[in-house]
Amino acid sequence: MNQIMSWICLLSICFLCLQVMIFICENTFKLFNKVTFNNKNNNKKLATASVTYNYKNKIAK
Questions:
Q1: Which long-range contacts (CB under 8 A, 24 or more apart) does 9-15 make?
Q2: pLDDT in tens, 10-58
Q3: What DSSP letter does each residue of 1-61 carry, written as one string?
Q4: How close are the terminal C-alpha atoms of the chain, in Å?
């Protein structure tokens, strides 16, 4: 009887650990997807002038 109780406790602890790991991994994936989605939106470059006007060359001419 003692061995049966030990096996039941072992199985219940294993099941509990599995549930906790699934919960942690699920939250981690949600957080990771949120961070990568935000990084994709932040990687868009702002419009900037590609050529700057050089006043020194204009004055020298």
A1: none
A2: 999 999 999 999 888 888 878 777 776 666 655 555 555 555 666 666 6
A3: -HHHHHHHHHHHHHHHHHHHHHHHHHHHHHHHHHHHHHHHHHTPPPP--SS---HHHHHH-
A4: 102
Looking at residue 46, the DSSP 8-state letter turns out to be P
**Whole-angstrom distance, CA of residue 19 vs CA of residue 28:** 14
Place of tokens 């935000």: 38
Could you give the C-alpha distances from 4 to 8, 20, 23, in angstroms and in order? 6, 24, 29
Residue with tokens 């006007």: 53
